[in-house]
Design goal:
By secondary structure, the chain is an alpha/beta fold. The chain contains ten helices and ten strands. The protein has an eight-stranded parallel beta barrel with strand order 1-2-5-6-7-8-9-10, surrounded by six helices.
C-alpha cells in the first residue's frame, strides 16, 4: 500500500511546509499531499483551513491576504505558508505530489495550471496528481491531459461519475472502505486510495491504527493518506 503523506509528515513537522514534505520522502512516502488556496493577489499557496486561526491566531482567510503578507506569517512551532511552486519542485525532481485543491473556481484552476506548466517539465507532469472535489475540476484537468487526477468524492455514490469524468484514482474516507465497494471501483479501472481516520472512526483525520491499516489493505486499498509516515511504514512492513 502506497503511503501518501497527509500535508507532509505532519505528525512530526508543521503541516504543508518544506520540512514536512522532505521528511516524508526521506522516510519512505510514495507521495506528499499539499492543500491549495489563492492569496488575495492571485498566487497559489499551501493552506488547509478556511482561515488562519488554528496555525497563526489570525481570523482572516488566506484569500484575504496578499502573498507577501502570507509569507510573513510564522508560529512558534515553525509553521509558515509555502507556495505551490515550492511543493511542485518535488515533482520536477521526479517525485509524486498530490494537490488537494480547496478553491476550484476557474480563476484558481487557471492559476494552478499556470504554475504547474512553469515549474514542472512535461515528462514529469504525470507525477503531479490534481485532487479534485468537483466534476468541473476533474473535467478541467482531464482536458489538459498531462497530469494525474484523483477524485476527493463528496460521497461514495459519486465515485463512478468522477472516474468517468477522468479521475483515475478515487479517494474514499476510511469509514467508507468496504471490500465490495473497492472491488467495484477497481473493476471499472480505478485505483482506490483512502484517507485514514476522520468522522466515523476513533481517530482524527490522517491518523489510524495498525489494525485498521491492515483492514484497509485487505479490502484492496492501494494508497493511504496518513500523518505519520514512519509509523505507517513500520506497520505496513510488519504485514509482509
Amino acid at each position: 500500500m502506497k503511503i501518501i503523506a497527509h500535508r507532509g509528515d505532519s505528525a512530526n513537522f508543521c503541516e504543508n511546509t518544506p520540512e514536512s514534505w522532505e521528511a516524508a520522502y526521506r522516510n519512505g512516502a510514495f507521495a506528499i499531499e499539499a492543500d491549495l488556496r489563492l492569496s488575495s493577489d492571485g498566487f497559489c499557496i499551501c493552506a488547509h483551513d478556511e482561515n488562519l486561526q488554528r496555525l497563526f491566531g489570525r481570523p482572516e482567510r488566506p484569500e484575504d491576504l496578499t502573498l507577501a503578507e502570507l509569507l510573513a506569517l510564522s508560529n512558534a512551532e515553525g509553521g509558515r505558508i509555502a507556495r505551490l511552486a515550492d511543493v511542485l519542485q518535488h515533482a520536477a525532481a521526479s517525485q509524486h505530489v498530490l494537490l488537494d485543491i480547496k478553491d476550484e473556481t476557474p480563476r484558481s484552476l487557471d492559476a494552478i495550471w499556470a504554475v504547474i506548466v512553469e515549474t514542472v517539465r512535461a515528462p514529469q507532469r504525470p507525477l503531479v496528481i490534481a485532487g479534485c472535489h468537483t466534476l468541473e475540476a476533474v473535467h478541467y484537468f482531464a482536458a489538459k491531459g498531462e497530469i494525474g487526477i484523483l477524485g476527493f468524492i463528496p460521497s461514495p455514490n459519486e465515485a463512478e461519475a468522477f472516474f468517468g469524468a477522468g479521475a483515475g484514482i478515487i479517494r474514499l474516507w476510511e469509514r467508507d472502505v468496504a471490500q465490495e465497494r473497492v472491488a467495484l471501483l477497481q473493476a471499472l479501472g480505478a485505483e482506490v486510495w483512502a484517507t485514514s481516520g476522520g468522522r466515523g472512526t476513533a481517530y482524527d483525520g490522517g491518523d489510524t491504527s495498525a489494525q485498521n491499516l491492515a483492514a484497509m489493505a485487505a479490502a484492496g486499498i492501494r494508497g493511504v493518506l496518513i500523518n505519520d509516515v514512519v509509523l505507517t511504514r513500520t506497520a505496513l512492513e510488519s504485514m509482509q
